[in-house]
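Supplementary material to the annual report.
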Amino acid sequence: MAGLEHILREHAFFAACPEDQIALVAGCARNHRFDPGQYLFREGDPANEFFLIRHGKVALEIAAPAQSPIVISTLGEGEIVGASWLLPPYRWTSDARAVELVRAVGIDAACLRGKCEADHHLGYEMMKRFAPILVKRLNATRLQILNVYGKR
Amino acid sequence: MPLLTAAAQIDPFVPQLYKVAHVRRELSDVVTLEIKPSQGSRPSYAPGQFNMLYAFGIGEIAISISGDGTDSTGFVHTVRDVGAVSRAIAALDIGATLGVRGPFGTEWPVTAAEGSDILIIAGGLGLAPLRPAITHVLANRARYGRVAILFGCRHPEDILFHDQLAAWRGRLDIAVEVTVDHADSNWHGHVGVVPALIPRVSFSPHDTVALVCGPEIMMRFTANALRDAGVASNQIYLSMERNMKCAIGLCGHCQFGPTFVCKDGPVMRFDRIERLLTLREI
Amino acid sequence: MSEDCRNRAMSQNVSEPATTSSDGTALPVRAAAAVISRDGLQALIDALAADHCVLGPTVRDGAIVYDEIAKLSQLPAGWTDNQDAGRYRLERRADDALFGFAVGPESWKRFLHPPVETLWTARRDNDGFSIEAPSVTRRKFAFIGVRACEIHAMAIQDKVFLAGAYADPGYGSRRRDAFIVAVNCAEAGGTCFCVSMGTGPQAESGFDLALTELHDGSRHDFLVEVGSDEGASLLSRLPQRRADDADLEAAAAVIAQTRSQMGRTLDTDGIKDLLQTNANHPRWDDVAARCLTCGNCTMVCPTCFCTTVEDHSDLAGATAERVRKWDSCFTLDFSYLHGGSVRQSGSARYRQWITHKLASWIDQFGTSGCVGCGRCITWCPVGIDITEEAAAIRAHPTSGGQHGGT
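Predicted assembly:
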């Protein structure tokens, strides 16, 4: 547990997070290792865990018939993978594939949701950490779909 | 009659003649031309400046100088065929003649940035005007702090100067990150927009100079992301593009608010144009 | 400088040679003013015609335009121009004054900065092609009847074409060689506002000779002031007499009268910031609903300098040339940028024009681009009035749309 708390404290997502809350989250955490090509999760599966990447690169993909999967974005060290655990029906909306060896901490979704419900201070803290990331990714997606490099 | 300042003796409207010495196809619609003066030596230039290239009977366009430092006797220009003139220029063969006026415009602040960390951020063809700056920084590597090159484009097959990026990436004294907006699972690099690369490299925000070139929207998003990361607006430089005809501030076409992009730019400090960038149709 | 102060300064110039202009730069020592008759004016034209192309106002196609003149009879004697927004009519005067009008649709810009100019020609040869600048067949111009606002317009175009890192050589040589005979305005037009812009109605410098037409029932003469050595030399060869106090008073009265007749006013106080911080003002859409984006205002403006270039080749592809032509920021193509135009809407194009003219010009060249000649108002087919549009922004400024100067 102390090891996981240390890892969480060092991760950018939990920067300057109060110790007591780190301890609460650490109670839901476990270490993961994904080999290149291994999937962290698949579209449609229950979103029962989200990941803090400590090392390596993860590709979020959407598969389509008769073509290679389309990569929506890649995520790396210091970033988080997965937001579907926050909102019902708690199912993944894309595949997440390890592009290279990935070391990550997984946070059990049901466990963390339960603690957030029980402790709204923790819930609010988690929301404050998630919301900016979601907004930033929304803005990046806007830029991405503008196709700024294309000829007009 | 009135006492007027003596005008410059040379006629700035008349092009000098150059010949194509080398052609390299970079992408399906992009070529790099090395051109040499038909007579005499070429004028000196600073990273960030541009020339006006003239195709016989067709017209003239502004193209940034994209030399990589090996072009001591000529100019290097990377041209994408998007219009009549650029198509004609991009189609020139070795030995063909073209007209050149320049170099014109402001430069990347590579000297002023000495001692600082440097972030060079390019989108698409925006890597071309930055290549002379990159070359300068790498040739004088010891004068700078940390150096990072962040490059983004649409697809993996649109990566400009691919081999050179790979070579820079092989150096141990600079960070190079490449991302694409769209890719399939055969691409093993980053997928996402250029600003998203900024947190992936280390630099001291308070002592960093950022040089940004790419489509205007990409530069706007990037400049905002740099500021979010703590880089001051007056340490961020963008290379702007507007309709240039004369390149010397006499024809009025390239006005961008109170500035002339041809002579107050193309390289402009973000804090000086920040409000213009969000004004529509300015 | 107050009006009184200006008048005093003028009298001093006349009685004692002035050594500095109002902006402190050295001026040639002025000889005392003289008086010439109409015959003297003809002698002036004759003397200039020896080695100049002499241009002056003349009536053509229902307007007073500038064209080659040889005889006084070609001047618009007894004509005046009735001007208002979107309106210009020549009318008969009760007298036969030669300069009893304001300004017509043309300015001297068309001679110094011609509407069409070949910059160079290129020829195919065995080794690709060669380029040659056009052989210079330079005509020295002499302009008769240059108004104070037009002298200021030339000074503004001098800053544009000659003061930067690169000069326009053609403009430079034409400008340097031009002999300028100013005429102080005896009649303000209905769209004139030079007093607001500080550019008239009296020509204070920038001329070789300046005339004031002195015309009442008993006389028809011209007070002549000297603005350059060349002007002094020419004047010395004309039949003349020394001006007396009565002549000077009569001339001062003409100018004072004109000064009080301005058809329009424009409040220039803080105008740069006013326009630059109101880029998103609803008035731009209002004016765009009236504006035809025809570009008339830019063509008649004596300071508008924008040009485009056209590249042509012959059918055989053996020769090519580059021709420079006046262009207008009201055209869609003006701001074309691979694939589209930056300024698509009429409101953006009108905003560009007036903001450039009255505001960004100050950033770019240290002076307003407007001299208050009123041509853009008169020749607008729908009567859009630059003074009215500026006043409308001033009446209800918005804080949005900040737009930074450099």
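Chain C has two domains: 3-259, 271-395.
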